[in-house]
Specification:
It is built from eight helices and twelve strands. It is α/β, with parallel strands linked by helices and about 250 residues long. Strands 1, 2, 3, 4, 5, 6, 7, 8, 9, 10, 11 and 12 form a twelve-stranded mixed sheet that branches. The longest helix has 24 residues, at about 205-225.
Length: about 250
């Protein structure tokens, strides 16, 4: 079995694969055939993670995590297994790998294909999402898959994107929230609480974000559990093998 390198931007995404609290921004082994890198949000961080995983022996790369909907029909918790990535130019998915991954998933998951767009910034409005959809023909967007796909293409490695919708077209993370999170996506309470006290950020907004994020996390957890072998993870390993080992 080839060694798979998994790039995740956020700590909540990584927890869908392993319950252990991962160190930030380093290669962590998940056994003989998989490693994960918790990199933080954005193109540069994802590229560094992909290159680090490749240098550590990965023979295939996965971009795993949340995505924003660009298609009005997509709802939080829907799973995106795209056939290509739009990052200014088209980047290909390993379609055979994608098909094998999809075949392992339970029927109750809502799974969509299509194009996944790369963005250098968080889209915080329905207008921005609709404009990107029109420009790219994409059904969803994230900030990391484009960089991972490019790293895979340059190295001649198979690439797969596994993304769950965390925000629909009509509801997006507000700009004020972006300065109140740590690089791994966890809340910076020292900045978040003043925003709530000044009513710069509504509690109802946070509650809806939490609900939609929970739907996406649930989907990713199911996908990782059912398609674990396609991610290089064997659940037949003893419990100690699911701890992490930093290289």
């Amino acid at each position: 079995m080839r060694a798979v390198g998994i790039v995740t931007a956020l700590r909540v995404e990584a927890r869908c694969i392993t319950a252990h609290r991962l160190p930030f921004n380093q290669r962590i082994s998940l056994g003989e055939n998989a490693a994960i890198w918790l990199c933080g949000m954005g193109e540069a961080a994802a590229r560094e993670a992909a290159e680090g995983l490749r240098a550590g022996g990965a023979a295939a790369l996965i971009s795993f995590g949340f995505a924003g909907a660009l298609d009005e029909n997509l709802r939080p918790g829907d799973l995106i297994l795209p056939e290509s990535i739009h990052a200014g130019h088209s980047l290909q998915i390993d379609l055979g790998w994608r098909d094998r991954f999809r075949q392992r998933l339970p029927l109750h998951l809502r799974v969509t294909g299509g194009v996944l767009a790369a963005s250098r910034a968080v889209l915080t409005s329905a207008i921005a999402k609709r404009e990107l959809a029109q420009a790219t023909g994409a059904c969803a967007v994230d900030m990391e898959s484009g960089a991972v796909a490019e790293a895979a293409a340059l190295a001649g490695l198979p690439f797969l994107a596994v993304r769950a919708i965390s925000d629909p077209v009509e509801f997006s993370p507000p700009p004020a929230l972006l300065d109140a999170v740590h690089p791994d996506g966890s809340a910076d309470l020292g900045r978040l609480l003043p925003l709530l006290m000044r009513r710069s950020l509504a509690l109802g907004t946070l509650l809806r974000l939490a609900r939609d994020s929970h739907a996406a996390r649930s989907t990713l957890s199911v996908a990782a559990r059912y398609a674990d072998m396609e991610m290089g993870i064997s659940r037949r390993l003893p419990p100690s093998a699911h701890g992490y080992v930093a290289d």
